[in-house]
Amino acid sequence: MTNAEKSLRVGVVGLGEVSPVHLQAIEDNDHADLVAVCDRDDSLKPAGRETAFYTDYKQMINECRLDVVHICLPHHLHYPVTKHCAEAGIHVFLEKPLSISYEEALKQKDLEDTTDSKICVCFQNRYNPTFTELVNWLSKKETSPVTGIKGLVTWFRKEEYYTLRPWRKTKAEVGYGNIMSQSIHALDLIAVLGGEVDSVKATLSKLLDYESEVEDTASAVFNFSSGAKGYLHATNANISNSSVELEVQTEHERFWIKDGTLYRTDQAGDTHILAEDDRVDGAKSYFGASHKRLIDVFYTAILDDTDEYVTVKEALPSIQLIEMMAASSRTVVEPDMITADEFLTDMKG
Question: Which residues form the Gfo/Idh/MocA-like oxidoreductase N-terminal domain (predicted)?
Fold first, then answer.
């Protein structure tokens, strides 16, 4: 049987908000057979499916002879479930983040190095047409090296986002807030473009009046070994989910991605559209359309026995940047709210 004819036996652990994206991608893939799904909440059992349902992932793994498991769980469960799968000889497609800390991420790296299991981290935005074309342009000899990178992630989260799933606001379970749950994709792309980081200076703060142990807003500057500089501003306190923006400057040119379109301003000052991403409608459009691409890449890598996917080693820099931002900020700053009347009164007094 050729690789093109092989079918991987796939399971999914965790049936939360992102799982439908995985389930659809698995069902649409010619090399995959969705064998089983698992969630401890049996009310999430998919209706109308013949797929086996479990509430214990260890039982699912013991009984189903799986080749691949997709992990779509709260952050603090990423490492222990990956460990169980990898030590059982099962390949892992892991939703971001890699881990809740750099120390734990190194344990994931050890699993990658010491087991036969492949572990792919779901940084699907690397496979967006806009980003792949940006990387292509930056690799051209005539395009001078990157000098600056800017990322903006200005989103909105209702308080219910946290209260309905309390792990999202608990340090021990989520790790960090916005920088790990929302803007980590932007941090990953900044790390890909910037390369090795020399230093980071950042502030983490809570602008929303929600009960939470983690930040909802962050600003940071990065200094890379290449000499390039980076800037990130990310928040969940915007009035809506605005487009993620990524800007890259070289000595003579400027590239930027906004609203799913890649633009280039050349040396003459003329602006050109270079690429556009696939459009995804609906409330979860910010997930993007590249899960299917990365999942297919990973399945192909399993069948061909290559490392042509987002490995743990390649995902480590995102966790490093997060931990360096937190170390720079030291604590989550909680600014006081001040009214205009208070301000004017203080000025007069």
Answer: 8-120
Give SS3 for 85: helix
pTM, whole model, 2 decimals? 0.93
How far CA 120 is from CA of 212, 227, 242, 308, in Å, comes to 30, 30, 28, 10
- Could you give the angle at the alpha carbon of 35 between the alpha carbons of 32 and 41, nearest 5°? 125
Cα–Cα distance measured from residue 332 to residue 316, given in angstroms and rounded to the nearest whole number = 23
Rounded Cα distance, 335 and 208, in Å: 10
Q: Both tokens of residue 57? A: 């992932």
Q: How far apart are CA 320 and CA 331, in angstroms?
A: 17
Helix (H, G, I), strand (E, B) or coil at 306: coil
Q: Of 80, 79, 36, give the one whose Cα is nearest residue 60.
A: 36
Residue 274 Cα distances to 92, 133, 245, 249, angstroms: 34, 7, 15, 15
Mean pLDDT, consecutive 10-residue stretches, the chain (349 aa), reads 73 96 95 97 86 97 98 98 98 98 97 98 97 96 92 97 96 97 98 96 96 97 96 98 97 95 94 92 65 97 97 97 93 76 74
Could you tell me the domains of the chain? Answer: 3-123 (3.40.50.720), 125-282+311-329 (3.30.360.10)
SS3 39: coil
Helix (H) or strand (E) holding 25: helix 19-28
Residue 220: φ, ψ to 5°:
-150, 150
Q: Can you count the helices (H) and strands (E) in the chain?
A: 12, 14
Cα gap 175→218, rounded to integer Å: 15
Q: Which two tokens stand for residue 217?
A: 């807003």
For 4-20, b/e burial (b = at least 16 CB within 10 A) is eeeebbbbbbbbeebbe
Q: What is the H or E stretch that residue 60 is in?
A: helix 57-64
Q: How far apart are CA 294 and CA 310, in angstroms?
A: 8
Q: What whole-number distance in Å separates Cα of residue 73 and Cα of residue 81? A: 9
